[in-house]
Design brief:
heterodimer; A: alpha/beta; Rossmann fold; 7 helices; B: mainly alpha; globular
Amino acid sequence: MKERTVWEQIADQLRSRSIWMLHYCTGCGAMELPPTMTARFDMERFGIMPMATPRQADILLITGYLNTKTLRRVIYTYEQMADPKYVIGFGSCTINGGIYYDSYSTINRLDYYIPVDVYIAGCMPRPEAILEAFQYLMEKIRKGEADGWKRYKENYEWYKQNQIRSLGEVYVHDEFHE
Amino acid sequence: MTGVYKAIFNLAIAFFFVLTLEGIGRKITARVQRRIGPPWYQSFIDVFKALSKHPFSNGWIFDFGVLMALGGAIATAAIVPMGSTFWTPFPNTDNFFVIMYLFAVGALGMAMGMVGSGNPWASIGVTRALTQMLGYELPYLIVLASMMFYYKTASIHLLIEKQAGGWNLLVMPIGAIVAFISLLGMLGKKPFDIAIAPAEIASGPMVELSGKYLGLLHIMHVFSIFVEITLFVDVFLGGGNFWWFLLKFLIVWILAVLISSVLPRFRIEQMLKFYWGVPLGLAFLNAFFVLMGWTL
């Protein structure tokens, strides 16, 4: 790993304390986020806030299984985010397919398609587990180890190849205007 | 020359004080909702983190619009008097109309840049923001016009001096209430945060802003808040020394935050009906009282 400059270290400190998240609610994991945000677990005390669009967000939460149709949209969303960007995979569905491991339409391992910084095991993870994952991600960002966005740039060919192998084409067709 | 130093001091106060107040406001909202809430310096972290990211541009109109918005807001914040003649950077330029016109430069810059991003949500958000402007400015300007008629001046620091006998909050209480309701709309606080409704139109005008652009717009928003609340404090809550000014500013801000933390959001036509109903009627009533000389 390359040595970081002082500015990058300061920026990483700031990034670790102010995480704006975009939750892509594909699966059941989205259910666990409202309690994590509201009064009981209150993730805003760590500076974690929900954001409305991928342009503004820092982390992308993949909350559950992804079928091939949503994976295209996830890749689009991920590529729209501004550059230090991180991905958290929720639950066993993003690790090995979970209970959908033999489904014809879902992907099994998210890491083949976009780089994942932190996985949360469980089906589904409790809010405590989610907060612990956020703490772990903050620690990784602070140390400069959360470099998924750099890996995606360096290994773009490999990721693209995997995406095309599973999806046929990554391009999202506009059903209304074509 | 001292005017320039005072203007720079204005900007420094605007940046640090208002960002701190934003953090405090988030903390207060959190306590109202029985949460712990972020630390008071969270807004500083947010701004500087946003400035440290690698953003996308959407063409030169977009870039220019963001810079124009920030420039307009900075220019306005630099000339607003802070509660006394001594803290007036340019005593000949602090006319109410100058401030209002310069303030519009920032809003129009933002509108232009955000529409330049080409995103439909941004267009809808800008439409809503401008409609809301139409809503709150009408009662606000009628109240301010009656005040200027009453004191025969439009200069803010003269208005402050003329309140030595009694605050305008007590001289014309109806006008103060109307102006505070308009202030909530200007700040984009909760019943009137129609323009940036995150759940409906994906944060409206800001939908395509990433990284540095978002940080710059946040700073512009900070200067706008400073101008809006400072105008209210100057015109209605009298003068005093610098610390009194900060205290009044703090109280007005906390009141706005408390109101915003318990209310849901209006729809756009409800907002317009509301503003052109009760506050506009009260503003005319206030103007009538002033014309008849029935002030307290």
